[in-house]
């Protein structure tokens, strides 16, 4: 966790309405910075095969936040690191309608959620799970508007946390909440901004939906066991231990369900699993022998949220014994699993346990410590201090530890080429150097993941990120993030 900054001498007793706000790295100072840096200092050599932009998002609130505030909620920053021919340029844009000025002028503030963005042909909707999305320039990172799809989706007042791209039909698959928490609105968007396949779903069991899986014919909304809080002094969402894990299935084209499937137009069905956890993020999904098959990350610790800032509704006395497990952080296991849903089965069918998958390589942040030194398991929320590459076939794990007083952020994989084998490429991630209050961007090669290929040395610190992604240069405009300033106005040129 970042060290608490001491006030100047004589200012120790001066009060401030600003306090440290929580992010995914623990309590941290707000930054609220935007700007650009051309040709950032690089230590080492960035390979030419790395050509694109590393986007990352972070919570960074425009106004002081209330107690029990989730770090996933609120205004924040989108940062972009564009790399081309070994050079890197950086832009940091602050997110929010008019940078949050209207709510500040009105004397009120309602947090809005921001998450990963997809800055491709859709120019560019920044997700907000409890408000409409924001129009966001993918090169300038400037917030240019609110509610990018306007009256085409007036039924939904929010935008999803993780919109997904269907490369087969070149559409963005997304969803949001309606006027009530129980209502979902799913739809797809073309590159031209046309909304299609809109489906309003009134759920009989509500909860947060963070990610989805989709196939050619089906959409699976992966629901978390959370409920809104109506009590003062509690978190806005509460983890309800009495709820099962829920998957809501809907046809991709709700007006024309798959022929012969037995589904009616605009029908949805709920499938459950006898656990109290969630698919956090989805991986692949497809159809096989009439079944929907999808994969994702699965925290195997029912009976509590692994987000420690959420309050918890205690287990009901008649709860099934199958839910009762030891959910302490040191006993938490996150697996990559595969679920099967038979869409011919009726509403409220209970699913079989998922299959735990083996994959060649896993890239992850870890807590790296001396095995002889006791370590507080709650550090998983704030002090992941190393990045590891695990070969699941051999069990070999290679660790890069940047040293003491460092905090590693979520790694992103960059393939070495379009036809590179699995796991062959580079890993890029941010490292917060907490002792000197600066952030570096580290690039590791997967052939030697214990030593950096290059380190981008920023002259500032950034907030801990929620998510990041890599966008290849082929998908972008080819423009620099930081244009070269014109020099013909400078007096010294006139004298030459």
From TrEMBL:
Show the segment(s) annotated as Disordered. Answer: 124-147
GO MF annotations, alphabetized: carotenoid dioxygenase activity; metal ion binding
Locations of Basic and acidic residues compositional bias?
126-141
Which is a GO BP term held by this UniProt record?
Answer: carotene catabolic process
Q: Which domain of life is it from?
A: Eukaryota
- Write the record's keywords in alphabetical order, separated by commas: Iron, Metal-binding, Oxidoreductase
Cofactor annotation comment:
Binds 1 Fe(2+) ion per subunit.
Question: Which positions does UniProt annotate for Fe cation binding?
Answer: 162, 210, 281, 467
Transmembrane helix recorded as keyword: no
Q: Which cofactor does it need?
A: Fe(2+)
Q: Which family does it belong to?
A: Belongs to the carotenoid oxygenase family.
By what name is this protein known?
Answer: Lignostilbene-alpha,beta-dioxygenase isozyme I
Q: Which taxonomic lineage does the organism of this UniProt entry have? A: Eukaryota, Fungi, Dikarya, Ascomycota, Pezizomycotina
């Amino acid at each position: 966790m970042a060290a608490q900054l001491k006030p100047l001498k004589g200012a120790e007793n001066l009060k401030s309405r600003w306090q440290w706000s929580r992010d995914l790295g623990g309590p941290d100072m707000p930054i609220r910075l935007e700007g650009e840096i051309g040709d950032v200092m690089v230590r080492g050599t960035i390979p030419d095969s790395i050509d694109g932009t590393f986007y990352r998002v972070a919570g960074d609130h425009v106004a002081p936040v209330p107690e029990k505030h989730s770090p996933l909620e609120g205004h924040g920053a989108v940062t972009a690191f564009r790399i081309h021919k070994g050079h890197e340029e950086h832009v940091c844009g602050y997110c929010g309608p008019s940078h949050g000025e209207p709510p500040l002028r009105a004397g009120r503030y309602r947090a809005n959620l921001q998450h990963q963005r997809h800055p491709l042909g859709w120019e560019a909707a920044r997700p907000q799970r409890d408000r409409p999305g924001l129009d966001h320039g993918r090169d300038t990172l400037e917030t240019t508007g609110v509610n990018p799809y306007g009256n085409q989706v007036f039924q939904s007042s929010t935008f999803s946390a993780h919109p997904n791209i269907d490369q087969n039909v070149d559409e963005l698959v997304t969803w949001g909440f309606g006027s009530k928490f129980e209502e979902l609105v799913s739809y797809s968007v073309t590159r031209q901004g046309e909304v299609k396949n809109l489906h309003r779903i009134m759920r009989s069991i509500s909860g947060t939906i963070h990610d989805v899986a989709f196939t050619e014919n089906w959409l699976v909304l992966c629901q978390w066991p959370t409920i809104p809080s109506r009590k003062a002094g509690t978190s806005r969402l509460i983890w309800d231990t009495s709820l099962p894990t829920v998957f809501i299935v809907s046809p991709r084209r709700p007006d024309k369900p798959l022929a012969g499937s037995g589904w009616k137009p605009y029908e949805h069905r709920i499938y459950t699993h006898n656990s109290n956890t969630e698919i956090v993020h989805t991986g692949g999904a497809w159809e096989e022998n009439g079944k929907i098959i999808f994969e994702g990350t699965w925290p195997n610790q029912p009976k509590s949220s692994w987000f420690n800032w959420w309050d918890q509704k205690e287990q009901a006395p008649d709860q099934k014994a199958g839910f009762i497990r030891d959910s302490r952080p040191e006993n938490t296991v996150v697996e990559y699993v595969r679920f099967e849903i038979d869409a011919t089965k009726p509403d409220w069918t209970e699913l079989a346990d998922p299959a735990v998958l083996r994959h060649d390589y896993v890239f992850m942040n870890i807590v790296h410590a001396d095995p002889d030194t006791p370590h507080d398991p709650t550090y998983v929320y704030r002090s992941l201090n190393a990045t590891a590459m695990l070969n699941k076939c051999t069990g070999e794990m290679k660790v890069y530890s940047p040293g003491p007083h460092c905090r590693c952020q979520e790694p992103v994989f960059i393939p070495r080429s379009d036809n590179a084998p699995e796991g062959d490429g580079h890993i890029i991630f941010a490292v917060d150097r907490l002792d000197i209050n600066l952030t570096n961007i580290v690039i590791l090669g997967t052939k030697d993941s214990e030593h950096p290929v290059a380190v981008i040395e920023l002259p500032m610190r950034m907030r801990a990120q929620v998510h990041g992604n890599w966008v290849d240069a082929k998908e972008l405009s080819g423009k620099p993030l930081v244009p070269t300033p014109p020099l013909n106005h400078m007096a010294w040129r006139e004298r030459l």
